[in-house]
Amino acid sequence: MLRITDAGTGEPTDVRPGLTRVHAHVARADTSALRVLLVADVLARALELGGTPVVMVADPPAELRARADALGIRRAETDALGGGQILHVLGPEEPVADGIRVEVAPASGPAESAESSSAVRLALLAHPRSGPVDLDSGALTEAQETLARWRKTVALWANHPSKPIPEHVRQELRTAWEDDLDILAVLDVLRRLEGADDVPDGARFESYAYADRLLGLELTREIGAWA
After folding, report:
1. First to last CA, the chain
2. Global pTM?
């Protein structure tokens, strides 16, 4: 079960099973608002991986919607009405009436191009949501290099017979994202697995593909491109 810190109380809170509305509060089209939408998207993915039905709610400006589309952030309903519990994803100081409050610190930096959209997504995910992020050229270059390496490696692993995800890897991944949506811990698991020569390549492929259901980084997009 996902446990998230409610910024309204400062206490960890279990998200109980059942229909959940993830409401992203965005009014501007800046990178901070983009980060709010991204956290809401990954939060919804984590809940769905645990079997919880999710409706994502947001009404972003057109410019922000275009930036979100480039990052692979899901389209949202514009109306928050309906049943189920509500998780509010928002920047600091934003007022909400009810529900769990998931705060996201500001982000700054240049707007992404189509070529670097996945790098922007990874660069934002590679920092705790509670701390500010500056998407400078160094951060984006590092993210792009990591993506290029992982996509090539995943494509090479895909040439080997498929093997089940090792149970300890599956548990490490789920424990990470169910513990307050700790994406840094998820990325750490992938980095360790990248060099784990005692794990069959087919199992490493399946593990990366599984984690990417949460991360949304298109890690399998180059399958077939590398022999």
Report:
1. 40
2. 0.94
